[in-house]
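Work package 3, deliverable 3.1, input record:
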Amino acid sequence: MILWEILKMAASALRVNKLRTSLTLLGIIIGVSSVITIISALDGLQQSIESELEVLGPSTFIVTKFGIIMSEEAFLEALKRKPLKYEYVEAVKKGCDLCTEVAADVDTRAEVKYREKKMSNVHLEGGSANLLNIIDIQLDQGRFFSEEEDHSRRRVAFIGSALQEELFPGLDPIGKTIKINNTKFEIIGIAKKRGSTFNDNADAIAIIPYNTFTKYFGDSRRSTDIVIKAASVEMVQPAMDQVRVVLRAMRHVPYDKEDDFGIVTADAIMAALNDITKYLRMGLVGISSIALIVGGIIIMNIMMVSVTERTREIGIRKSIGARQKDVLIQFMYESLILSMTGGVIGIAIGVILGKVLISLMNFNMTPSLSAIMIGLAISTGVGLFFGIYPAMKAARLMPVKALSYE
Amino acid sequence: MPLIETRDVWKTYQMGTVQVNALMGITIAIEKGDYVAIMGPSGSGKSTLMNLIGCLDTPTKGEYYLAGSRVSELEDDELARIRNKQIGFVFQTFNLMPRASAFHNVELPLIYNGTPKDIRHEKVIRAMTSVDLADRMNHRPNELSGGQRQRVAIARALVNEPSLLLADEPTGNLDTKTGQEIMNLFSRLHKEGNTIIIVTHEREVATFARRILMIRDGQIESDEVVSETEKLANGTKL
């Protein structure tokens, strides 16, 4: 009740000096919007990476020659490793009872042609027939290839929706013959659209049988990735241990040496990326926060000026019965109105700028609720932090001195 | 029991390294319903005394009782409560909120004690009517004459029905004729039962009161009752 009346007084005090109020707002708007822009851009980046990694489920892991490399020395060391061989797939199937699915996977970039149309830089994968049971690619039309087709090295291809749109506009691609790096393949199935992430179109993909891949595009030095699905999320770790035992034995790794291969999970990739970008993110948020602090200092400065200018007004209020608390609340309201109004405008601008930035980088994002919450929280925090000192100064003025102030 | 009672009240200011005694052992008693003028030349300590009586300040030494309760040792917020409920101030420079309407100026003391809106409205209208300004409620101070401004200030002082009306040179910024009108208003308010204390350096203004306390160099010099002759001379409507 009394708080509401004091809020009205605070609002009308701010309306008196419109130019000053809007300049003060500007400081906070710039501060909040720059922080929000950065946070929502980083958020968008994170979301995009996560959706990219969703193709690997939580119980899936991949054994590769390199694993996740975090330093140059580790990379040079890993270069010396022998490639992973196809035989390991069978060995893992036998030696790992916690692995429900084990598939071989190799990949390269290829050019795909249909009559005069062509699409280059297509992600070409050679995989086992059970690959779709492990990674999150859905069947849309037709079928995936069978184990039999894999063994007999049939030239059949399962393509992504981007290839369909690019090479077969308005046509049914099933049964049509395409050329992958000048070798003819028959299309047997199409994958559901996944959407693009980063600059990479996840739908510009063609999957052919593993053994067909090695026959036509093979290279003895190419390492074969082993894609594995564990019985459950809890079983991932024990399954990995079983796989390591099998592979160490097959690759004759001495008991006192480390693995000469790596294991990759979605979580591990995310953690590695976060680790790499941690300081970058902290730095960006830190730099943009400087604007926010400057905005806060502007509020504080203006409130100090305002308290001095209105010393007499404060004296009058006190002489007719305003308590310290009433004066304190009035001035806190004023700085909070400033910072929160600036905050709301800043959030709006920040979200828009963040979206523009994201779309320039060519990936999708949903407006981040966390950015909005953070924006509101920091602008409130700035108002409270930088408003408290001037408000206390006002509240503690002695009525006699304040009344005689000229 | 007197409404106001001070016992050996001292007020000492520290000016750099020098101590200045603004009040040196003031002992006075003012009854409820009285009309008293505190008179003295500038620098005599009369404003300091008014600030103490008005609970805007606390004495360095001595005791002050207002309506029987000892206020000389109260905290800031308790003093604010007393200023709000018990004391109505009228200042030489009016001290109105320049950007607020007359209505809002008079309403302000009621807001600070949490009076509900409808009751506030009623009380403001009553106070504005009693100073004959019911038709100027939505005017801002700069749209009013000096006398009207002072009447708004008086309405603000009266709105909480205080036990004491405290006026500091209320005619100091007004011409003679308007000053006379304001003093007549005080006389009327006194007749209606209000206790009034006026601080002034002008004998003519002081004679409107029933009793004059002369103060000089921080001490009470004389305490006299104003004679009928003097009352007639200043034109008080008896």
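Strands of chain B lie at 4-15, 18-30, 35-39, 61-66, 69-70, 87-90, 164-168, 196-200, 211-216, 219-225.
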